[in-house]
């Protein structure tokens, strides 16, 4: 990735209000290009066409869950390097373990702190620029 190139972030959540919030948080930071999806099937189609560097996935979506999408992408050599943040209201330790077993790189509980999300995004961006 070149210095001036924006990091592509795809947000997948079936809740309109959460996508609006995430868009505001992500667009408040320099260097990120935001796109969105409402279900697992749409995520897979967008990833194939536009390969984002970061994917923020809600667990409970129509069609494929965030866990299923994560597992599909991490098992595909073309997409395994996408940094995946699982975002969920399900905060049990078993959910966190399930996210890890699917290949998720980060786990964020709803309700989440926008500052925590920004820290994660900046951390990923720094990692990608090395």
Mean pLDDT: 92
The CATH class: Alpha Beta
Using only C-alpha atoms, the radius of gyration works out to 13 Å
- Strand order, main sheet: write it out: 2-1-3-4-5
CATH architecture: 3-Layer(aba) Sandwich
Distance between the amino and carboxyl termini: 9 Å
Which sequence of SSEs, written as H and E, runs from N to C? EHEHEHEHEH
Give me the secondary-structure topology.
Layout: E1 7-12, H1 16-27, E2 32-37, H2 40-50, E3 54-58, H3 66-74, E4 83-88, H4 93-102, E5 106-109, H5 114-128
Parallel strand pairs: 1-2, 1-3, 3-4, 4-5
What do these coordinates show?
Helix 2 packs parallel to helix 3 and helix 3 packs parallel to helix 4. This protein has one domain: 3-Layer(aba) Sandwich (Rossmann fold), CATH 3.40.50. It contains five helices and five strands; from the N terminus they run βαβαβαβαβα. The model has no long low-confidence stretch (mean pLDDT 92). Strands 2-1-3-4-5 form a five-stranded parallel β-sheet, sandwiched between helices. The protein starts with 6 loop residues before the first strand and ends with a helix. Strand 4, helix 4 and strand 5 form a beta-alpha-beta unit. With 130 residues, it is an alpha/beta fold.
């Amino acid at each position: 990735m070149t210095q001036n190139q924006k990091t592509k972030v795809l947000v997948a959540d079936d809740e309109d209000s959460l996508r609006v919030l995430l868009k505001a948080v992500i667009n408040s930071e320099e260097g990120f290009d935001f796109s969105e999806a409402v279900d697992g099937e749409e995520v897979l189609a967008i990833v194939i066409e536009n390969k984002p560097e970061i994917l923020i996935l809600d667990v409970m979506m129509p069609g494929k869950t965030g866990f299923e999408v994560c597992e599909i992408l991490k098992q595909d050599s073309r997409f395994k390097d996408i940094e995946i943040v699982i975002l969920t209201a399900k905060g049990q330790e078993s959910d966190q373990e399930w996210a890890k077993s699917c290949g998720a790189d980060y786990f964020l509980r709803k309700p989440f702190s926008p500052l925590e999300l920004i820290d994660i995004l900046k951390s990923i961006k720094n990692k990608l620029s090395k």
